[in-house]
Write a structure and sequence with these properties.
The protein is α/β, with parallel strands linked by helices. The chain has 18 helices and 20 strands. β15 and β16 form a beta hairpin. The radius of gyration is 28 Å and the shape is globular.
């Protein structure tokens, strides 16, 4: 085994009364590619700062091999004292590097990220700030690279570039990210920070869900056995502890220890309850755009774009930063008039908006006053009054945070608060502009589940490929050639359909073939019949998966029948694979049908 470049030994750290981690041991060898997983607030960013040598431990030690270079990317970089991108990136290089070479190296890495070296650092968009800070982290060519949410505010092209860079990186890597696709593609080891402890898994994030479910199932079984031990101890205690107190104080202390374990055992630590009130039902037609165009000066944003969005649709928008996604959203929702064409909105629309700038949050307000602006301690959720602290708990906030100024909350906590505010309000048209930035994976999962059950219509701008695949029923894409087109499905579906269109475009560009040549063979009848049957089969498979998952969700199933639990779990995985194959086949046949002009 390779010697560690960086290690923590018996490391403990707390913030106030909260223990972030306790007696933690981790090591990082050359070439290791680690994803660091954990809930917002679990201490991931602080642990990364400890590894970077920026935060001192309460106890334990940090070991770093001599002459090992460590580079750290923070979530929110500080550009103070640097007027340009070039100045900021060049400052990351050691003073031993000659100024002319420093300038060349900084310009090279900024060029790879598509940034102008002379770009002023004030003001910067979120995406620009992220790319410049990435350039500063990469320019030093470190032995150890520590990245805290590197994909926040990056567009898909930049994220894919980053994946390529990390794949070629020869040093050790630790990365925190909510981008599942990125983590699955670059990580080979998983560190899971949970309840002040860290678990290490020798596989990457692609195996995290299976592994974490096994860990939690084992914990639940242990908790059940712990409960039985507590009951036995209480039975003994009630039958005569007084008479034997002096010679049994050790046993009494053991009972108190067991109770303390029970209190501190949080198992599946809470959940975010993202239920929504769909408000008054809208009509079937929600938005219809016909040949809309928009330009600012010489710059064309949208040209002759048409779409029809119906009740229940979940429409994703994909494109580079600054291309005009928010402008198109504003036109589709009637907030901005197109230069030409027309937009027709459906009836009874009630719009709720999530703004990526979080402008709806007053930094001097508190979560309590944000949810109860008229005073009091009750918030109306789904037509039912609920205490504000209880509602905040469902979004993973601690009771003491209810009266904490919003300005001291983390980016993820502010996003969760804004979601709490928006999702409690009745609506039937939900506009989400970059909702996934700074959210942990549990909150992303629950946001996805909420959107699945939401009866209204959703428009969502996101660069999270996995989230779009899980949520979108169709995707509006700002193509590299400047056109805007709509595709069925999410991000991966767009890639498939784009690939299918490229040969067709090439054939259209080829010289016209003689008319005497045999015409293209029409789609076979058997394939059409197969296409007709597939939706029914997919619906049946989906229902069977739901039935099996409901069985798995029974609280005592694993404890009563571990073998049966494993068999049902295997059946679910097999059914999911079968459903995925059917969906791919359906898309393939649909593409063939369109190509045949049917």
């Amino acid at each position: 085994m390779a010697p560690p470049l960086l290690a923590l030994r018996s490391a403990s750290l707390g913030l106030g009364r909260k223990r972030l981690f306790d007696q933690l041991d981790v090591s990082l060898a050359k070439g290791e590619r680690v994803c660091l997983i954990g809930r917002n607030g679990a201490g991931k960013s602080t642990l990364l700062k400890v590894l970077a040598g920026m935060v001192e431990l309460d106890s334990g030690e940090r070991f770093l091999q001599p002459r090992t270079g460590v580079s750290y990317l923070p979530q929110e970089p500080d550009f103070g004292g640097h007027a340009t991108a070039l100045s900021f990136v060049a400052a990351a290089l050691p003073e031993s590097v000659d100024p002319p070479l420093r300038k060349v190296m900084a310009e090279a890495v900024l060029g790879r990220l598509g940034m102008d070296p002379e770009r002023p650092t004030a003001p910067l968009s979120g995406g620009e700030a992220r790319r410049i800070s990435l350039a500063a982290a990469l320019v030093v060519e470190p032995d150890v690279l520590l990245l805290d949410e590197p994909t926040n505010h990056l567009d898909i092209a930049s994220i894919e570039w980053l994946e390529t860079e990390l794949a070629a990186f020869q040093g050790a890597l630790v990365i925190i990210s909510h981008d599942r696709r990125l983590l699955a593609n670059v990580s080979a080891v998983t560190w899971w920070l949970d309840r002040a402890k860290i678990r290490v898994h020798d596989r990457g994030f692609a195996d995290f869900e299976n592994w974490s479910e096994q860990v939690l199932a084992e914990e639940e079984a242990n908790l059940y056995r712990l409960q039985k031990r507590i009951e036995a101890e209480e039975h003994w205690l009630h039958r005569g502890v007084t008479a034997r107190r002096k010679r049994n104080m050790g046993r009494l202390r053991r009972l108190q220890d067991l109770r303390q374990q029970k209190r501190s055992w949080v198992g599946r630590t809470g959940s975010v309850d993202l239920r929504m009130d769909a408000g008054q039902a809208s009509g079937t037609l929600v938005i219809e755009a016909k040949a809309i165009s928009k330009r600012f000066g010489e710059r064309v944003i949208v040209q002759d774009f048409s779409t029809r969005i119906l009740k229940g649709d979940r429409v994703g928008l994909i494109g580079p930063n600054g291309v005009g996604k928010t402008t198109l959203l504003r036109m589709l929702t009637g907030e901005l008039e197109p230069d030409s064409g027309q937009v027709r909105l459906g009836t009874n629309l009630t719009l709720a908006r999530f703004d990526q700038t979080r402008a709806q949050l007053d930094p001097d307000a508190t979560p309590w006053t944000t949810l109860c602006p008229e005073g009091g301690d009750q918030v109306n959720v789904l037509g039912r009054w609920q205490h504000v602290v209880g509602y905040l708990r469902s979004f993973l906030f601690e009771e003491e945070q209810a009266r904490t100024p919003i300005r001291v909350l983390s980016g993820g906590e502010r996003n969760r608060l804004l979601l709490a505010k928006i999702l409690a309000a009745p609506s039937n048209l939900l506009v989400l502009d970059e909702p996934t930035n700074d959210l942990d994976m549990d909150t992303l999962d629950l946001l996805q589940e909420t959107l699945d059950g939401y009866e209204g219509t959703v428009l969502v701008v996101s660069h999270d490929r996995d989230f779009l695949d899980r949520v979108a029923t169709s995707t509006i894409v700002f193509e590299p050639d400047g056109t805007v087109q709509e595709y069925a499905g999410g991000y991966s579906d767009w890639l498939v359909q784009r690939a299918a269109q490229e040969p067709a475009a090439a054939s259209r560009a080829a010289p016209e073939k003689p008319k005497s040549e045999r015409p293209k063979r029409p789609m076979e009848t058997r394939l059409l019949r197969e296409l007709e049957r597939l939706p029914g089969k997919m619906e049946a498979a989906t229902a069977e998966i739901a039935r099996l998952e409901e069985k798995l969700g029974q609280a005592d199933f694993y404890l009563k029948d571990p073998d049966g639990f494993a068999k049902v779990n295997a059946s679910v995985e097999a059914k999911r694979a079968e459903l995925a194959a059917m969906e791919e086949r359906w898309l393939e046949l649909e593409t063939m049908k369109e190509a045949a002009g049917l």
